[in-house]
Amino acid sequence: MTAESDLPILVGVGQHTVHWDGSNPADAPDPISLCVAASEAAIRDSTAPEVLRDRLDAVVVVRTFADSIPGNVPPTGRCANPPQSVARGLGAEAGAGVYSISGGDQPQKLVNEFADRLSRGEHRAVLLCGAEATAAAKTARRAGLELDWSASANGPLEDRGLGPMLLTEYEISNGLGWPAQTYPLFEEALRARMGLDREAYLALMAELLSGLSTIAAANPFAQFPQARDAEFLITASKENFPIASPYLKWHVAQESVNQGAAVLMTTVAQAREAGIGEDRWVYLHGHSAVQDRPITERNDLSRSRSLELVLQQSLSTSGIDASAVAAFDIYSCFPCVVLLAAEALGVDWRTSPLTVTGGLPFFGGPGNNYSMHAIASMVIRLREHPGDFGLVLANGGFLSKHAAGVYSTRTPQQWSAVDSSELQRSIDEGPAVTGITVTEETLATVESSTVIHGRRGGERGLLSLRNESGRVFAQTGFEAGATVSELASCTETIGKCVRVHSINGNNFVRPNLPEAPKPLFPASSST
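The chain above was modelled as a monomer; its predicted structure follows.
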């Protein structure tokens, strides 16, 4: 167990949001300037800025969305060394610089990692930060302005790269890829398991999201601080247009933001030496992080095994259960993530708000860094309510990677870094669904489907199908208008039987969705 003086603590947090209108290019934010502004706020928040600036020996930056796309060369250029560039902007010397892998799980996973490293004496003070300026890039492009974000400092850099691929080549070739076009398969599978028709589920999503927007409206760091009522959220309109069924625009994370957040970590001993009062200290109690199998291999698309295990371990290693948690921030890129977490926790989201920021659709979705904002907001919330517990759940990929942490101003009775290897092994070695390679026309049952929309309406259907051999993903094809229309107008596709054929390794469904006399495979199964 870790000695009390070596306990890792969060002592400073900062956030920075810019609403740039494009009128003056000199005012345009960029990821590094947003990181510096948020980090400067975090250092000041510690109440010992000069001491901690001198003791800062690691700067860790969450990978930007632009740097998470293989082969992408953004028109703004890219900073070659974000950690050292942030350190230079702060007037600090960072002995170690880390640039994370991609994924929305990273902020919490990095807190978990560096809490362990601090407790073992590897560092004195660590700054974690990240930012996105996607809105500025888009505004500049529309205005015909050129932005240059290529300036970079030199120094030690551990660039961890993109990380593992979260989709297989089979999944990508058969239509999976962009999150807003893939998550609908989870959403529709969950709807079916809940026994709701599409109208009832749309109303449920609108109710959930309206509550998130109310919290965002009161958050000074929100990019879209406007409360949206359920009627607006349930109705397709020019401002709330269809993306992929069942989603309208404001049902999903909004990436056009200019937001940065930072968290400053140290140890009890270092904080005492620096003269930081205990009213600033927030402890990480329990935590966990695991990665799920590829989507094809998951037993049930209406559940997330990795999400469930991470929440269970984070609570158990904190010595509490969900009923003891006073505040939550559940990653809310899409409604199903919040609903699945609420189910796993046994929490009623109608009476226990599951965000302290307002959520990714309304607070804003700054790429991989959203949960840094959640952690920063949670620290403020817990300082205002000493003794309360708060839980943050971060999600990466396609319900692919989860990391969670339980926080409190209470001193842990005992603390040690959490080993999640057994949980990871249970996923890696557990039962898996086989992906079907279609060589001749095959019958399969729809377990989930979505219609992907473009400017002209529904353009393409994407289906997840099962039969006794396993799972197959298939599309309608961009010119299969009749099939797309049928998918869009069908009251219920789940449980129907379709014919699948393959062209050059890509799977397509035949027109017509006849009622199967008996589904070839149940639409939803237990984990």
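The first strand starts at residue 8 and ends at 17.
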